[in-house]
Amino acid sequence: MTAVLETPRTGASVQFRGLHRAFGEVRALDGLDLLITPGELVALLGPSGCGKTTALRVLAGLEQVDVGEVLVDGTDVVGVPANKRDMGMVFQAYSLFPNLTVRDNVAFGLRLRGVAAPTRQKRAQELLELVGLDSHGKRYPHQLSGGQQQRVALARALAIEPRVLLLDEPLSALDAQVRTQLRDEIRRLQLRVGITTLFVTHDQEEALSIADRVGVMRVGRLEQCDTPAELYARPATAFVAEFVGTMNHLPGVVTGGGTAVEVAGHRLALADDGGGADGRVTTVLVRPEAVTLEAAADGPVRITDHSFRGAVTRLTATLADGTRLLADLPSVAAAELRPGTTATVGFGSRPVLLATEEL
User: Fold this and answer.
1) Phi and psi at residue 332, in whole multiples of 5°?
2) What is the tens place of the pLDDT at every residue in 282-299?
C-alpha cells in the first residue's frame, strides 16, 4: 500500500457563514453557521425538512445559496462549479455503473481526470484493499451485497483524494446489522485517511456513534453542535434534549423562584432560570437512566412492563396520576421489579429541562 493511504492527510477546514436558502416559502437554511476543523467528522442530525441535506448539497456545489459564504480552507467556494470543488460524495443510493467492474467503478473519477490507466488501476486496487474488497475487483455491482456496493462507492469517493468527504445518509438503505458494521468501517477509514467529513443522517444512534461532533438542526438553524457525550448529557435546548435519546415527559410545578421544579414529590434543579413564576404547571424532561426505582409495598409507582436488554433493563411504570415513566436500571437491580410491583421513585442530581410548546 502506498504512502498516500498509510499516512493520514491533513484535512481541509470548512465553514458555513450565515447561509440562507429558501424554496418558495420554505426556508431550508436560515442563517446556518458551522465550522468543521481539518480532519474532523461532523454529523448533521435532525428531523425531515430541517435543512441538513441542503447544507451538504450546498457544500458539494449541487445547491446554491441565497445569502452566505461557504469557506474551504478560508476560500469562499460559492459560485464554484461542483466539479471544481474537489469533493468526494457517497449517496444513499450506491449509484455504481452496472456495466463497469468494481475496479473500474472505483477508478472512474481518476479516468475523468486523465490519470493514466496503470496509475488509476493501481490506485483503485489500493482503495479496494482499504475497504476489504481487494479480491472483488473483477466483479460487477450486481454480484455484490448492498454493504459491499456501498464500500465500493466509498472507495470511489476516496480515490480522487478529495479535500472533503460528504456522506448523504449512506447507510439508510442497508439492514440493521450491515448498517452497524459499515458505520464502524466508515469511521475507521475516515480516521485512517484523515479526511474532513460531513455526514448527514436522520439516525441519532448512527450520528452519536460515528462523529467527533454532532450538529442538531431545526428549521434551517443549528440548535447545538457538540461532542456526542456533551450533546446527550447537557443538551442546550429542550428540542435537542427531546430529539437526542429518549425522554420522560413528567408533570411538574415550578418553584424556587423559577430555579427548580417539583416532580413526583422531588425538587429538581432547572438547567436554566426559564421556569417562570412559582406555581406554574409545566412538563419536565428526564432521561430514563436518571430515574431510580426501589420496590416498596406502599410505593406510589406501579411497574407495568419489564424489558430485559442485557446489562440494562428498561422498566415502564405508572405514577399515581397515571403518567407513564421509563427507567433504565442495571438488570441486577431491576430483577425484583416485575410487572405489578409497587415502588418508590427517585431522580438523579443533574439539572433538568422543561419541554417547550413546540414539543
Assistant:
1) -65, -45
2) 999 999 999 999 999 989
Instruction: Please determine, for residue 121, whether its predicted confidence score (pLDDT) is greater than 70.
Output: yes
Q: Residue 277 to residues 113, 250, 262, 332: CA-CA distances in angstroms?
A: 66, 18, 13, 42
Residue partners of 25: CB distance under 8 A and separation at least 6: none
CA triple 106-107-110, angle to 5 deg: 130
Does the pLDDT at position 250 exceed 90?
Answer: yes
CA–CA gap between residue 67 and residue 29 (Å, rounded): 10
Handedness of CA 206, 246, 44, 231 (dihedral sign): negative
Question: In residues, how long is the chain?
Answer: 359
pTM of the model as a whole: 0.86
Q: Which three cell numbers stand for residue 169?
A: 445518509
β-pairing verdict for 301-309 and 342-347: antiparallel
Sign of torsion, CA 165 169 173 178?
positive
pLDDT value of residue 37: 96
User: Residue 16's closest CA among 3, 4, 6, 29?
Assistant: 29
Cβ atoms of 45 and 201 within 8 Å: the answer is yes
